[in-house]
Design brief:
mainly alpha, about 0% strand, 1 helix
Length: about 55
Amino acid sequence: MAKDSTRMPMSTAGITTYFEDYKSKIEFKPGHIIVFSVIVILVIIALHIWGSSFLGL
């Protein structure tokens, strides 16, 4: 009796599909992310050098 059952392909079992036609309301260009990262790095370096005198510590 078990030999008569049909089996479904297991290739899509457990895979979550995400649709590509979803548009986010917030979009950034890769160049903007790089510029923002460089600015954050420069601010961190400046705070390490001049932070204690600037903040009065």
